[in-house]
Amino acid sequence: MSKRHDAIFEDVLKDLNKESAPVEEDRGATRFLRRSNALAEVGDREEKVLRWVDPAHCVMWARHNRAYELLNEDNCRDLIDSIKSQGQQEFPAIVRRLQGGSGVEYEVVCGARRHFAVSWLRSHNYPQFRYLVEVRDMSDEEAFRLADVENRDREDISDFERARDYAAALEQYYGGRQKAMAERLEVSEGWLSRYLTLARLPKEVIAAYPSIRDVKELHARVLKPLLADPKVAPSILDAAKKLAERQADARAEQGTPVDASKVLATLKSAAAGPKRSRPPEHIFRGDAESTGVTLRKRGTKVLLEFSEKLSDTALRTAFEAYLAHRGKGRK
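Predicted structure:
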């Protein structure tokens, strides 16, 4: 958590540490007073309600910026261990209430890893843990900005997950107006543009990587001008498809994955085309110990190279050998 996040949830922790978490949700929610943001007048307070709920009663918001399917015990181990150590979840997830009688009551806007960690613990002999949530009423655009602010400085959300989220939001909330979106998020247009470029990489290129988490914003900067060149783009896409097949085999445990740096190098090589082989050469010597004269062909021209230390006799003999070879080629 950053200092900003710590400040937001400071009062939450004070109340939660005074008593253990309720066993059942219907025992009521924990109420607390949270300081408003820095722009508010000193002394202003906003009342919020926290609830301990069964994570099975929550679903991820369809526009959540984290790929929930990529969460697992390994990449959530730090959080799982922390919750076990503290005896409860420390920071509440942000949710919206859902209407309907399907048994799902809340939509998670922020808190996918916390949801996974609590769910994992409950399914691994720790049924006492509950999912701590703060229920808010907000629009989709507000939910998007809240999730972005919370996760922007987190290293466990990949560049591509963030880029994909920005690209969808650009059309859905800002009418494709990149400047308006940048102003709303309080970022520079250039910074936002780099992530949008990443989101627009061809699906063949994304599939060439071991995981979407391995696709970096820097990779998009390198590949963008190459993919914009109609002469080399097809070669890049062909190379990407071959890499994607290898990555799919690796996921099926039929080989080893190609790491991200090698993927980028392979795609760049495909843009450069095959390496030109050196033109064929012949060496004509006057004797076995002489360096002789080296002949290389360049189209219709012939290049003869020899050391300036070569003696006149050795040079004359080598040229005679070359002329004899040339004469045979004309017959």
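Summary: Residues 7-28, 30-46 have pLDDT under 50 and may be disordered.
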